[in-house]
Amino acid sequence: MVELRPIRKKSAEVEATEALRNHVVGGGVPPGGRLTEMRLSEALGLSRSTIRTALHQLANEGLVVQLPYTGWSVTSLSSVDAWELYTLRGSLEALGARLLTENLDSKKKDQLHRQFDALVAACETGDEVAIVDRDLGLHKLIISLAGHRRLAEQYRLIEQQIRLYIIWSDRLMPSPEDIIATHRPIVEAIVAGDSRYAESILRDHNESAGRVLFEFLSQREAADRPDEAVSPARARNQTG
């Protein structure tokens, strides 16, 4: 017999946050694009105070920034941002993969397989928002299953910045099938129980995708500001 459970209604603020998050993540507004509370209020049929609450939540997630006196803007990602994120993320996730592999059990294997299957299903639909969510979800799962509290805390600090990074990185993939192909070896390495290989493949995964994104953003910046192009050496100098 199927048990009936209470239906939990979402508040207007939660609904607005989800709608705006999907709008931003799905590319409805380009990086650096402006968002105004009045237009969003009219489009969603919600009060400006509700929209403002939702935008503040997205700001906490790193997806938008508030501009003094002028409204809001979708967060942009610079080449230096990309370099910092892929080097930091690579170190955190490589450690997570090694620790997870060293303490792997059947339950954790099942969780990894289910999350990877969810990524595959999202890629097959071509839903960009779902792909980004499942992509990030797989990497978050590796961190959470590693059993290292401080590692998980550090990852959460940059989680939404990583989401923005993944949005850009996934868009540079030739097709959703390539996203599947680049993540399958990660799961296989961990499940195989080779901790050093799992650590290495996570680091390589982040570096290869990160370099592609870094070069793309560097070229775009060079086209916009020829005198301010950012080289890898300059990125390292700027980040210490």
UniProtKB/TrEMBL annotation:
Cited Gene3D superfamilies: GntR ligand-binding domain-like, Winged helix-like DNA-binding domain superfamily/Winged helix DNA-binding domain
Xref: Pfam families: FCD (PF07729), GntR (PF00392)
InterPro entries attached to this UniProt entry: GntR_C, TF_FadR/GntR_C, Tscrpt_reg_HTH_GntR, WH-like_DNA-bd_sf, WH_DNA-bd_sf
Residue span(s) of domain HTH gntR-type: 10-77
Molecular function via GO: DNA binding; DNA-binding transcription factor activity
Keywords in alphabetical order: DNA-binding, Transcription, Transcription regulation
Name of this protein: HTH gntR-type domain-containing protein
